[in-house]
Amino acid sequence: MSKSTRTEVIETQPRRRGTSRERVQLPKAQSGIEGLDEITGGGLPRGRPTLVCGTAGCGKTLLAMEFLVRGATQFGEPGVFVAFEETAEEIAQNVASLGFDVEDLIARKLLVVDYVRVERHEIEETGDYDLEGLFVRMGHAIDSIGAKRVAVDTLEVLFSGFSDAAILRAELRRLFRWLKEKRVTAVITAERGQGSLTRHGLEEYVSDCVILLDHRVIDQISTRRLRVVKYRGTTHGTNEYPFLIDADGLSILPITSVGLEHAASSARISSGVQALDQMLGGEGYYRGSTVMVSGTAGTGKTSLAAHFVDAACRRGEKSLYFSFEESPSQILRNMRSIGIDLEPWVAKDLLRFHSVRATLHGLETHLTTLHKLTQAFSPDVVVFDPFDSLDHVGTLRDTTSMMIRLIDFYKAQSVTTLLTNLTTGGTALEGSGMAISSLVDTWLVIRNLESDSERNRSLTIVKSRGMAHSNQIRGFLLTSRGVCLGPVAAESQRHAALRAATDEPVSRSERAVSAGGGNGRVRSSRTRKGQRARS
Amino acid sequence: MSSSSDSAGTGNGARGSAGEVWELRLYVAGQTPKSLAAFTNLKKLCEEHLPGRYQIEVVDLLENPQLAAGDQIVAIPTLVRKLPEPLRKIVGDLSNAARTLVGLQLRTPSQVEGRRP
């Protein structure tokens, strides 16, 4: 399912790269591996070998196998897998968990798995020899199904099987030449060496494309990364890209390549709270914009998010709700208490929750998961509650870069994103944990103000790009019918003054508003100043 | 099958355990100098050490590529001792007779000077 939606992301590429230079680039064979074709600008060099190197357990074999399986199933290119390390049965078992039915492909003549066993202790060497036997086997396998792709995993086993390095090197050089003559697109895997890309210097023979896989553990959280070290004759992404191995195989996240070229929509969508829409130029948020709601604990950020999701579902739009602190049932229960019933939307599959503790995965794994869920569901509205949970997961730089990628990713798809941001007591309210406030389009701050032995909430719009918006501070009330915004501060102050004069008993809610208003005037002027300074 | 078969009648007095017939298979890929040398060297060696109780089957992989997988052939030429068991493989043109004998276990490594075990 995610495979079909993936094309949308890929299609954004040619627009940016659609220069005349692309026409003179090498012919490429799409790997079909999620994300890899975007980084390489269309795939691996067609008819040439590509070297994939990395340490043990970093996913080389899987990449090689997925390249063949996708080739056979998606691009009609049969493949040959030359396995030096595992038998055909073992490989079939290993990749079955990723949904690859190797045996079926073999039966349909789309794949040949040739297990080449080289046992040192069985072999005695005397006199001159060559590796023609290997060539014959590969040639036979390729010809038997008309293979267009070949994966060799991993050639270096030969170095432990044969002692004459001079012969081996000459033969490997011949092998790579032979593969080119055969016009097959090949993936050759090799073990990472110390101080060199591969243990036996295979990069010397493969000059067209070299991909490096890496598996790192930082702060007990492991992340796999992929980098295109070299790709002769073509432009390619040079960053390290995180990748994930999950139930669908490899998926690489080239989100950093998403540019700032998303089309800005002038369509507006409701925040779910009518009074808030009024404050936002009367129409609510821009579609595809990024909204951040900041506030200390218990100020009602989640409630505002629930209103937003509820309104989206009422319009028949799909919402994806990422919760990093509460389980779905807890959110449903809590929101029922303020009169928002989200359950019907869940039942209709208009609303999906994804609740997971932020510390469960590394950042990149989170990002990949979010990416995948988004592609599987293609939501119109996405909520992160609270997104700053993620900053416990990595360094500040990492989390900020992840948020940028995330915001860009959703913007590119015109998905409206609402982030809630938990500000801790004592820190500046108008600051977000990851310094992303300049990235968001609309920023709401909910404050808890203490006065007259009460805590009362108020809401301000700190900024909202591209629309006239209210500069007022409003009382923010959570009632059994949801969020209500109280009268504007100046007005409520007049009310309060009036009441004080007439000595009427003041109701709790009204006092809340007046308390918010009292403080608000000072703050609102500072807000405006602050905004001017930033812009 | 295009493999040629060379065998001799019963014989005796050779080294190695008496009685059993040695089944040898030589994998080649076309009539290359290396292949021809390997066959000549092998024939000579067998006549010397296993007269009358050996069988050589030559398999040309250019004609029967599918046979390479069975004996896990990678290098050419490769001599495979099918019988007596265990299976042994010797790669190369067999130009070093002493090593070939060790490989075939017709001679122990200690009988060859400077050989690793």
What does this structure look like?
The complex is a heterodimer of chains A (535) and B (117). Chain A contains 16 helices and 23 strands. With 535 residues, chain A is α/β, with parallel strands linked by helices. Chain A folds into two domains: 42-122 and 130-252, 3-Layer(aba) Sandwich (Rossmann fold), CATH 3.40.50.300; 268-471 and 523-534, Rossmann fold. Chain A has a nine-stranded mixed β-sheet, with helices on both faces. In chain A, strands 17-16-18-19-15-20-21-22-23 form a nine-stranded mixed β-sheet, sandwiched between helices. Chain A is elongated. Chain B has 117 residues and is of the alpha+beta class. Chain B has a single domain (5-9, 18-106), classed as 3-Layer(aba) Sandwich (Glutaredoxin). Helix content of chain B is 21%, strand content 23%. Chain B has a five-stranded mixed β-sheet with strand order 1-3-2-4-5, covered by helices on one side. In chain B, strand 2 (22-28), helix 1 and strand 3 form a beta-alpha-beta unit. Classes of the chains: A alpha/beta (535), B alpha+beta (117). The interface between A and B is medium-sized, with 26 and 33 residues. Strand 6 (123-125) of chain A pairs parallel with strand 5 (88-91) of chain B.
